[in-house]
Amino acid sequence: MGIDHSFERDVERLYTAHHGWLRGWLTRRLGDSNDVEDLAHDTFVRVMRARKPVNQLRQPMAYLSTIANGLVMNRWRRLTIERAYADALASMPERVEPSAEDRAVLIESVLQVEALLQGLSPRVRTIFLLSQLDGLTYKEIALQLTLSVDQVQKAMTQAFRRCYFSLFE
Known about the structure:
By secondary structure, the protein is an all-alpha fold. It has seven helices and no strands.
């Protein structure tokens, strides 16, 4: 119990010493954005969840900026996906447009798939997407990418293995 209290005090000291600096750093990255406060908050939430001893950090600003940068990148990635989705919706007839709840679920699903695919090489990711999204056969993928069918099969095995093991992470 004492260790947790000590950790909380250390995080509080880190927050007090660097929260203003982090907000400034995020403002320089994002401009005058409403996201600055949220991202600064989320950065310290990540620090707390990591449960790493923050009182021993040699470069606390580098530590905080690394975490915050990852959050900024995730935010930009999400906004890109949301814009692409909104553009796709705009081109659909109104009767086909999904509800707001369905859109949120779909966007979250796309973000999860995107995060999953980040762990794959670009070639394996391309092969997987051609198969799963475009519905191409392994032979069609092989022809399009000038690969052998065996290479496509191995790439798909690698992608499916990644999908399967992600269920247990």
